Amino acid sequence: MQYLVGEFGISFVVVVAFLFGVIIGSFLNVYIYRFHTGKSLMGSSHCLSCGTDLKPYELVPLFSYLALFGRCRTCRSYIPNRYFLVELLTGLLFMGVALTAIDVISMLHTLFIVSVLVVIAVYDIYHMIIPDELVTALLGGVISNQLYLHITGVPMSVFWWNIFAALLGSLFFLVLWRVSKGTWIGFGDVKLIIPLGLSVGYTSMFSMVVLSFWIGAIVGVLVLLIQKVHHQSQPHFKFLPTPLTMKSAVPFAPFLILGYLAILFFDIDVIALLSYAP
Ligand SMILES: [Zn+2]
After folding, report:
1. What is the mean pLDDT of the segment spanning 133-144?
2. What's the CA-to-centroid distance between 123 and ligand 1, angstroms?
3. What is this structure's pTM?
4. Could you give the CA distance from residue 136 to residue 172 in angstroms, rounded to a whole number?
């Protein structure tokens, strides 16, 4: 496969994509915050604690957070580290997309898709809900990209097979949702898997689902362990708002999205992976 990056030189692409991603990430932060508070996207940015308007040099993505040691210059209250993490994550994702893109149009589509996924993941972690309008936006981006790929030569039958696989994945999640009464996965995941499945296509649908469960299991066990260690050393310190137990409902979207990204960037084939296993 011919990658777009070959035409420009790798270091240039990496730097530009990262910086662009960081800037988009800071807009996503504003969007995430104002989306659930219902505030307008216009207006100046200000400290969430004391309300002081932020100066331009306090709004530089990544840099300002580090320079201010993660605190407001006026009232010294902590700025949620989510702001820094979303900027960094978006920068890294944009870098990955630029490095694996085949052409400019499909790269722009994928940049849009990963941006929406960042918002969905953060939203699901904080609110345990996936807003429908975000899934709709995602579906629009994915269908547009699939139709573009068709114009560049991918047969239309592939598109139909991808739709079939996406619906099959959704049906499987629907069964899990019903059986677990919403504790393993939420109804939002039943919807989210449709655009993601359509995007990875019928050849990678199975791998994406398996990878997301593996990642979820690993993270779940790690959180349980960290919680145990923390609880023993500091009985009054709470690692999560409510302690995680084997029966807890956990936001599944981040794991599904990680499974999707593993396919997008590394094209992992679970069946091939298992056949190598001893
Ligand atoms: Zn403040």
Report:
1. 97
2. 24
3. 0.89
4. 20
